[in-house]
Amino acid sequence: MTDQELETFKTAIDLRAYAAGQGYQLDGKASWRGSSVMRHPVSDDKVIVKRGIDGHYVYFSVRDDRDNGTIVDFVQHRQRVTIGTVRKELRPWIGQPPVPVPSFPALPKTEKDRMKVEAAYARMEDAVNGHPYLERERALPGALLALERFAGRVRIDDRGNAAFPHFDQDGLCGYEIRNTNFKGFASGGTKALWLSQQLPDDNRLVVTEGAIDALSHAVLFPDNHARYASIGGTPNPQQTELIRAAVARMPLSSEIVSAMDADATGRELAEIVRRAVELSGRQDLKFIVQEPVGHKDWNDQLRAKPQPFLPYRPQVPSVA
Asked: For residue 32, what are the domain limits?
């Protein structure tokens, strides 16, 4: 019974494996690199498991703000037992698990600010059933938000704001917040790329300045084979590399579309995307620049002339 024993529990036992032994199941669609979402099919308990900089496996409950911590807290919260009973429960896990469990790849260590960002985002509702602000003021149809392409990529916070998650090489790192006359970013978060879901038969990547622009482009130019990315304004050095990586992930003979605003800044950003395509080393990719017609950005164009959301791919005009 030493503090070292508790430390070993926290670092040596994969909390995901222990949770699996208690009946929890991995939600692959809601998980990403550095973050595993586990659900219990009976109690409907939902927790997110990460690994801290100190090497501790940690979790937080999406249902209860007070329910978070290490594997020691996980056991105590669910079994309502003393620390002595926790020791007895976890000692077998230092050797061999007492029940068969799936294997998991190692989780990278995550900073605390990043965990706070992910916890806040996890508690938001998915906008799969629509979003009042996006539909009424931005002319984005609810049918668009319900598509598999944008599943989990637009959420609603407790103030009714639209939230758009940003991802870097390690997963969720921040989120944009938009509403009437309001624009913000997650406290403690880092700007990276907003990304749509990726489907295996995609053959086009559309890169825009903002997530609302990307969604507007998807309405104006429906394409079941297009994936989308946005940078949320002027890119930082990390975002430039993330654009290159997104380009490099595209299937063979894909088309990369720079769809920035129709102004000087938008054209500078188009050159950044062009350079990212060059740096990818992919000779099979086609690069084009597309700008809004008669309007500064894609949402202005959409609101000026709303069009029905149709599941087909029309010809997309482009410039050099």
From this structure: 3-110
